Amino acid sequence: MTRKPKVLTFDVVGTLIDFENGMKNALLQILGTRGGTLDFEEFLTEYRALRNRSEKKLFPEDLAPIYLILAEKFGLPTGGGEENVFVESATSWPAFSDSVDALKRLEKHFHLVAMTNARRWAFDGMDKTLEYPFFKGFTVDDSGCEKPDPRYFTYVLEQLAPDGYTKEDVLHVAQSQFHDIGIARELGYTVCWIERRKAVGGGFGGTVAVQEITTPDYHYHTLAELADAADRDELVMLA
Length: 239
Known about the structure:
hydrolase, about 40% helix, Hydrolase, HAD-SF_hydro_IA, S-2-haloacid_dehalogenase
């Protein structure tokens, strides 16, 4: 037997918000006329390697030490608070071009819930950019841990329980195989992978890499494709 999902839980940064272009825009603003020399794909590779280090800070405050670590290699200016500008840019990172419209369409079918590793102050800016689509929004400040920690998923289910929702009602939607798809599948969720990097030739970009790709229940390259499937009533889960 199958059933339809009632709730879509979303990763935000990388799935709905284009953090890679957001960081690039911030770096170009900081660099000014020297921005043309920046190899941004190489920057993303170095950034990705640092993002899961043991001494990392919460996100996006973690962008400050990363900026300072990478400053010499990429010729980034320091000494004027540039690392803080880089951090604060998170509140104005752009949405992917299809995010706002697709979320409006999905909102007609499901309750939408945000599950982000970002701090609340940063998520508030992202929520505004996305035009406030969420029934509920959870941040690392609420959960006390970052995905892929299973406790984050447990926390969200506990918060959804008073509304009558269980794991069996949830379709988890995300871009990151590391932070979301692998662990959600392991925990027994139905999962939808939005492979955003397909548009630029694949790879992991700024997202922590995995050795093995987890096969999702649904696999799209854009959020618009997920909304199309919902409009056609094609999203189902095992009962």
